[in-house]
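Archive entry. Fields below.
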Amino acid sequence: MIKSILKFFSVTFISISFTIISTVASAEITINWPSIWVGKDSKTTVIRELVDEFNAANAGAIKVVIEEQTDYDIYAQKLTAQISTGDLPDVFTVGADLLDILHRSGKAMDLAPHVGSDSHWNNVYPENALQSNMMEGQLTALPYELFVTPVTYNKKLLKAAGYDEFPTTYDEFFKMCEAVTATGKVCTSQMTGKNAWTSMLWFSQAVASAGGPNVYERGLDDPAWAQAFEVMEKMYMYTTSDAIGADAGVSGGHFLNERTAVFMNGPWFIARYTSDGIPGLHANIGVAPAPMLTGGKGAPGGYVGGRQSSLAAGKQSDPAKEEAVVKFLKWLTTPENVARLSYSSGAMFIVKADLPADMDRLFIEMNEQKGNAPYVAPTFLNGIASLPIAKEFPQALSALAIGDVTPEGAVEMLKDAE
Amino acid sequence: MKLRKDEVVWLLIFIAPAICLFFLFFILPILFLFVTSFTNWDGIGAEFVGLENYSKLLNKKSFIRAITNNLYWCVTAALITVPLALIVALLLAHRSRGWKVFRTVLFIPQVVSSAAIAMLWAAMFNAEYGLVNFLLEIIGFSDFEKYNWLGNVRTANAALIGFSLCYVGYFMVIMLAKTAGISDDYYDAANIDGATQFQKDVYITAPLIKSTFFLCIILAVIFNLRQFEYVYLMTAGGPANKTQVLVVYIWNELSVQRLGRGNAAGVIMICIGAALLLILRKLLKSETYN
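PREDICTED_STRUCTURE:
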């Protein structure tokens, strides 16, 4: 009898304990963050640290869970679908090309009231940075990562080809490519796979060089587009044999392994020159503005860059969760944390942060050149502001590279995509 | 046989769940697809645009290319993959020594992730470090040094479709299973008549598995009409849209938020599929596999 009573009370006690534990556990707010800053991304380590520190500081109350998104393109497609269905993640990063549709969906959290509620974001963002991001009085995304895309070149390989300085015009540049080819190396890393990122950056430079930084306002009828494709046509004469169809891993891999002499990517790639490059690569890398087209409307030293990714959040029905999300976004945008991210990865951010004096040499050079640049023109993907045209670009570029179309024909392909 | 009233009621009760699910997950989406194909739906808003999506699609070279490439895939499957599977099935039906090993090896691609296989083949075809060029160089074809198989208009489609022959094992297994059901009496009679193995294959086995062969052709055509992962992962429809296929085209339209036009492409794909099936049923005389 006593045993039965004891059993009964034991079971009851355990059940009540479980109920209490589960109730307490369910009080914890979980924030899901499908993050692209994972895997090989240069921001992975610090992002993980920041999330862990945030979770530790808010133990039992808020927990941020990173859902790893290892493919940028797939992530963008997934996010596009989520915007359409209204099933947005709690926190996410969004590219400039999706900002308009994100706003129109009405599914993103409006951060404007939170900007006004305390001074945090007004203090950490430069003047007008938030205002310029507002649409119809709403702030659906916080501008976060910035980028510029100068040329990075291997000084050792260029020296072997007889060049101490990076050329300033495309005429000189292609002469240099001849010289590099003669040494048995390949001049440039290019790619037409996925969004043709590296080649797209070169194309952006060439378009701005031919038509000036405002070329996008004049539309695709401007002759600058065909001129830029002419540059790309030549560029593909001095690239690796696998460039057509190659993805960013392949094109970047050639430069990291010193198979190619010239490469173009954003500052986030700086850390990878050390972590993934062959020994000594980082020391051999130089940074320069892209060459200019003779007679073009661009100006020497002109840079291409812009907003890389913004922070956004899905609309919340629970005020407590909304507060938790805002708290986490504030954590990601503190000057100290942004400085840590920037220091470890080389990435640039719009948030005002005191960067350490011993920032990477390449980062400093990029920053200086950006400061001296007569303009920072948008990339083709951002400037053209059309998803269908951006999607067609790799096909037009590959058609040009294989001789299927002329530069004018490549422009027609872009026009036809709209 | 005429069913009683209570039998009809029970019949309806039992098939109702299947019909409901079929309607919910098949008929309804097709209706939705059809209706939205006449709009400029972008995921946020939609306006009726009539036949604009269809006319734009049919005037696009890349879309026509996608259709012809899909037909190319289907014809290759019907004329090469399935007949090859038949030959292999006939050979393995002899149950010669080691036939089970061959059967397993040929079936392996079917149980491996197609994405993994596509990535593997993309690496094998790579111009700089791919195994294909390496082997060609070893046997003396130096012209193929750094040849970009998937990046060249002349070879991209052939390379894609060529590697799809790996999937011969699927159809082979289906036909091989059918041969197991053939009565030994036929072969005994043929032996008495002094028939050779080749004659037995051609005059006994092949005709008796004809219905399965036709079924395999239909399956192969359907599979290849909805070809996606190999093209998407290996070439993404490039270079210059030369390897574009319908599903990748639809995917591209959807990924740029042109959902209305993507759905119009989907409707056209359904029509092409239905037309192909009707033609095949006519050509293959449906009673032989029904």
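CURATOR_NOTE: Residues 1-36 of chain B form one domain.
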